[in-house]
Specification:
Structural class: alpha/beta
Number of domains: 2
Number of strands: 6
Largest sheet: 6 strands, parallel
CATH topology of the largest domain: Rossmann fold
Distance between the termini: 14 Å
Strand content: 5-15%
Radius of gyration: 18 Å
CATH architecture of the largest domain: 3-Layer(aba) Sandwich
Shape: globular
Strand order of the largest sheet: 3-2-1-4-5-6
């Protein structure tokens, strides 16, 4: 579908709009090596996906809570307080910052006439805080999370929920994400997908390819704005 037919841009949030690297310091504060952050976050996603695949549901905070407890209990010699460790890590999600290219990209898309929304496996309240801190909350019409459809992306119902809340059809929407699994899920649900590479060089051949690809949101916004009639 030509870019000028996209009416709604649906943003993933964690790692797409916000970086998670600041959480490394919180891991180290509780006595956990910071380099375990990517594996921990991947484990949270895995368990959320598994619940959805099994027809069950738990929100991000609950799954992440269990993942912190599992992580610290597996470390030899760790003798801290598990609940304090959970609080230290999860509180960090309320203090994340957007990537440097995000404010420009969001403003550019909004000014070009795109309707913006977000759909996160996390919490919409944290998305609102993130975007407000970045000064771009006013560009968004709706903010959604998986509590609505009670299933995590990449389940088709999660994308349909976000698009319906934006009063649009899947074929009118473009998902923007850094995760190939998210692009694949959106494409299978009838949306277009724009992959932000953010330093990655290889897109998995086993997943549905993106409709568009860009180095970051600045480049993608310039591409989409140029295609606007």
């Amino acid at each position: 579908m030509p870019a000028d037919q996209h009416q709604v841009v649906v943003f993933d949030v964690n790692e797409t709009l916000s970086g998670l690297t600041s959480l490394r310091g919180r891991f180290e504060d509780i006595g956990v090596p910071g380099q375990l952050l990517p594996a921990w976050f991947a484990g949270v996603l895995r368990d959320g996906f598994a619940l959805t695949a099994a027809g069950a549901y738990a929100d991000f905070a609950s799954v992440a809570h269990d993942a912190v407890r599992t992580l610290v209990s597996s470390l030899e010699g760790w003798a801290g307080d598990e609940e304090e460790a959970v609080h230290q890590v999860l509180d960090g999600f309320a203090h994340l910052d957007v990537h440097p290219d995000v404010p420009y990209g969001i403003r550019k898309l909004s000014e070009a006439g795109y309707r913006l929304t977000a759909m996160t496996n996390g919490a919409a309240a944290l998305t609102e805080q993130l975007l407000d801190t970045a000064g771009v909350l006013d560009c968004f019409e709706t903010l959604s999370d998986v509590r609505g459809p009670r299933c995590w992306k990449p389940a088709p119902a999660a994308y349909r929920y976000a698009v319906e809340r934006a009063d649009a059809r899947p074929d009118q929407a473009l998902l923007v994400a850094v995760h190939p699994w998210d692009i694949d899920g959106a494409r299978r649900a009838g949306l277009a997908g724009a992959w932000l590479r953010r330093g990655a060089s290889v897109y998995p051949q086993t997943t549905t390819p993106p409709t568009l690809s860009a180095a970051d949101l600045r480049e993608l916004a310039d591409m989409l704005a140029a295609d606007r009639p």
